[in-house]
Amino acid sequence: MKLGWLALAGTTVFLGGCHLDMYIQPKIKAQGENTMFADGSGTRLPVRGTIEFGKPKLDTEYYTGYKADGKLLREMPIQVDEAVMKRGKERYDIYCQHCHGAAGDGAGMIAQRGFALARPVGNYHTDRLREMPVGHFYDVITNGYGTMYGHASRIKPDDRWAIVAYIRALQVSQGATVDQLDSASKEALGVSGPDGSGPLFVPKATTPTVVANPGPVEGTTIPQKTNVEGGE
User: Fold this and answer.
1) Which CATH number covers residue 123?
2) Domain count for the chain
3) Which residue has the higher pLDDT, 180 or 94?
4) Is 33 among the domain residues?
5) Which residues are CB-neighbours of 169 under 8 A, at least 6 positions away?
6) Distance CA 125, CA 123 (A)
7) How far apart are the two ends of the chain, measured CA to CA in Å?
8) Is residue 42 domain-resident?
9) Which structural domain range is residue 144 located in?
10) Which residue in 78, 82, 85 sits closest to 166, CA to CA?
């Protein structure tokens, strides 16, 4: 009899400590009302930029750096302007400079402090990389190359292209010839020669561009710099 009373008392205490808040909890059902939002709707639109899981990315060139025929992209798929260059420099300084160096010569602090490899850190000023299509750099940033891991989870696509544009600017800063400059650039550097074809990458043009006097001036180069302070 005593055991029965003890069991009943224990059950009463146990049930008394329970309630239905977890079973009957506040929630918003589909198409239901929610007074927390100004429009009173409980159904919210996805955050801007959201991509539905499983949906294909149809802009192959932009997201992969490759054309539909499998060849690397040679033209920038975005319009390159001052804002893109500034963003590219900022992202480059964060993710790339410590290995590839401020001037893109492969002499970053990681390389200088004993990062010895069979294949050294990439130097953007070699003939091989100067001639490499822009899609190559985008693909390397995305998927990695050698000991460099892919940065797809760290750098979003538009920032990857901004970095590619800045890498091209670094290449121009260290190896461009006078025939690739416009009048303002030649005047700033104190050199002479006809206006030429511009930078090594080809921006996405909105109107046809006519280049006057594209002929090169052989043997004339821009004075070399050991560092690049900005992409402007």
Assistant:
1) 1.10.760.10
2) 1
3) 94
4) no
5) 85, 88, 199, 228, 231
6) 5
7) 91
8) no
9) 75-232
10) 85
DSSP helix/strand/coil, 149: strand
Residue position matching structure tokens 């953007």: 124
User: How far, in Å, CA of 223 to CA of 229, rounded?
Assistant: 16
Which pLDDT tens digit goes with each residue over 51-105? 777 767 788 899 999 998 999 999 999 999 999 999 999 999 999 999 999 999 9
Residue in this structure with the two tokens 């299509």, named with its chain if needed: 133
Query: In a 3-state reduction of DSSP, which class is residue 55?
Result: coil
The one-letter code for the residue type at 163 is I
Domain assignment of residue 63, yes or no: no
pTM (two decimals):
0.60
For residue 104, count CB atoms less than 10 angstroms from its CB and return exposed for 0-12, middle for 13-18, buried for 19 or more.
Answer: buried
Q: Specify the amino acid at residue 36.
A: M
What are the angstrom distances between the C-alpha of 93 and each of 15, 33, 49, 82, 202?
A: 62, 47, 25, 17, 23
Q: Kindly indicate the confidence band of residue 203, based on its pLDDT and cuts at 50, 70 and 90.
A: very low
